[in-house]
């Protein structure tokens, strides 16, 4: 799998928004304290759904939507298969 | 007491769903998930704290729009915040009897001297005694 930013070419760091369930309490002085944070979404699903939802993976440097390639060798495999088929003929 | 669960009486511990931000780092064929850190602050922590505060402030301010009436049980449910003790969504702002309001004219009259003193400070500032002449 490969994640690349098509705008700036960054391939190292990206931001992903995730829904979390936050348990908190009211302090006596009116402030809030966070007790627990639990992740609600699956990261795998989020990465696979890239491009289908508005909550997308974005580039950390420029903020553009990232491009996720799940199987970067897919095209190579296709070319190999086509070449093998031609050679067999 | 800002919020109250009318099922169990809890007014301290609650839960809500908010969006957080995580960072995906790819290096040497490995992908790691961690907090999004910039040189001067932690973006993940900042987002969670701010979103939580925004959510609580919204529910406290827009009390009517955050509640949904269920005709079957004839009770109100909070759309955003649930009780962390019993899991119920019957979380509402506690009822407070309205404070008796003083008419505005009466309040202005009571504070007239204070206001005059305040204005006098400003006018005196522009008419300070002249200590020397150029």
What does this protein look like?
The complex is a heterodimer of chains A (89) and B (134). Chain A has helices at residues 43-48, 74-88; strands at 2-4, 13-26, 32-39, 58-59, 67-69. Chain A is α+β, with helices and mostly antiparallel strands. Chain A has one domain. Chain A has a 3-stranded antiparallel β-sheet, with no helix packed on it. A two-stranded antiparallel ribbon of chain A has the order 1-5. Chain A is elongated and about 80 Å long. The two termini of chain A are 33 Å apart. The mean pLDDT of chain A is 84. By secondary structure, chain B is an alpha+beta fold. Chain B is 34% helix and 27% strand. Chain B contains 4 helices and 7 strands, in the order βββααββββαα. In chain B, strands 3-2-6 form a 3-stranded antiparallel β-sheet, with helices on one face. The N and C termini of chain B lie far apart (63 Å). The interface between A and B is medium-sized, with 29 and 30 residues. β2 (13-26) of chain A pairs antiparallel with β2 of chain B, so a sheet runs across the interface.
- The number of helices of chain A is 2
* Domain unit count of chain A: 1
User: How would the global form of chain B be characterised?
Assistant: flat
Instruction: Provide the gyration radius of chain A in Å.
Output: 21 Å
Number of helices in the DSSP assignment of chain B: 4
Order of helices and strands of chain B: EEEHHEEEEHH
Brief description of this entry?
The complex is a heterodimer of chains A (89) and B (134). Helices cover 24% and strands 34% of the residues of chain A.
Q: Notable features of this structure?
A:
heterodimer; A: about 90 residues; alpha+beta; three-stranded antiparallel β-sheet; two-stranded antiparallel sheet; 2 helices; elongated; B: about 130 residues; 4 helices; 7 strands
